[in-house]
Amino acid sequence: MMIRSILLAAALVCLNGPLLAGSGPASSTFVSMPERVEMGHVSRHQDPPVVDEVKIDPGKVRFGNLMEFDPAKKPQIGTVRSDVVYKQIPAYKTILADGVERGTARFTKLMKEATAVYKRAVEAVGAEGYALIVEEGGITGYPVVDLTARISESL
Questions:
Q1: Distance (Å, rounded) from C-alpha 65 to C-alpha 101?
Q2: Smallest Cα–Cα separation from 130: which of 117, 143, 111, 118?
């Protein structure tokens, strides 16, 4: 077990440099892992990816490829409030109006239909020249355009 620990420590030193800050026997402050990986500046932790100073929550990307996003190229980014759009979709309106219960076959069928309509609308607006469409609040540090009304109109 001791040899395994020593080998692991040696591997970390080779990959990340010294584990201890400073030099000499009096220094014993542990240096944490870097916040970002230098290639692509993507966070190592569960935080949203960091591209320069732009933060994007990958779970909130509704259109586009996050891995192809390059803020240096200044692509157009849109945001959407999905709850507002869904409330305009007839199948979702039926779920709300009839009180269809989650987990039922009818609910599943209606949600599948509503989601397909939502995706088509988002993709249609995204194809107008947007690199990404992100749920509102899913991107910081970059100028965005609220596309909620345009997506709702395209339903």
A1: 34
A2: 143
CATH for 69: 3.30.910.20
Mean pLDDT of the region 57-76: 95
Same domain, 108 and 127: yes
> Containing domain of residue 25, as a range?
1-33
Instruction: Encode pLDDT of 119-152 as tens digits.
Output: 999 999 999 999 999 999 999 999 999 999 999 9
The helix (run of H) or strand (run of E) holding residue 50 is: strand 50-51
C-beta separation of 122 from 151 below 8 A: yes
Alpha-carbon gap, residue 100 to 132, rounded angstroms: 33
Mark whether 3 and 40 lie in a shared domain: no
In this structure, the answer to whether residues 26 and 55 fall within a common structural domain is no
Give whichever of 5-9, 17-21, 105-109 has the largest mean pLDDT. 105-109
